[in-house]
Design goal:
This protein has 151 residues and is of the alpha+beta class. 38% of the residues lie in helices and 28% in strands. The protein is built from two helices and seven strands, in the order αβββαββββ.
Length: 151
């Protein structure tokens, strides 16, 4: 009688081949995911900067984008409340390290915008991002005086 199916040796060969292919492909996928996380963190910080700048113009008062560094890397926006002397945190505090597994450093801890949307700082602010793979780095440059996100 003839049996149909796979032998144990054939199944072991297939499992070994799948393992070898996964072992070769996994580091490449990990590096790609890390690079994507670094880019996403860069986009998030750029978005928060643009939000602060537009809030300063819309509310007619000072708005600030804040940065923290290291494993507590984060970014958030504060602005005055129109007709009041209180300061409001706008939106949520973005924990860059927890959300993207990326550490962040910057040349200053905040960038302030006046009611015209111009930055108080005269020199560029550079925010750098580093992923788990040391080669994966990126940065955002906030132009001095104009406050625009250059890169």
């Amino acid at each position: 009688m003839r049996r149909s199916g796979f032998t144990a040796i054939e199944l072991m060969i297939v499992i070994i081949l799948i393992g070898v292919i996964a072992a070769v492909g996994f580091p490449k996928m990990r590096g790609t995911l890390d690079k994507t996380n670094v880019r996403s963190a860069r986009v998030a910080v750029g978005t928060y900067t643009v939000t602060a700048r537009s809030l300063a113009v819309a509310r007619g008062c000072r708005a600030v984008v804040h940065f923290t560094y290291g494993t507590s890397s984060g970014v958030w926006v504060t602005s005055c409340v129109p007709g009041s002397a209180t300061i409001d945190t706008v939106g949520q505090i973005k924990d860059v390290y927890q959300d993207f597994n990326v550490t962040m450093s910057a040349t200053r801890d905040s960038v302030q915008f006046d009611p015209r949307g111009l930055a108080f700082e005269t020199s560029n602010t550079i925010v750098r991002f580093t992923g788990n793979v040391a080669a994966n780095t990126d940065s955002v440059i906030i132009a001095g005086y104009t406050g625009k996100v250059v890169r």
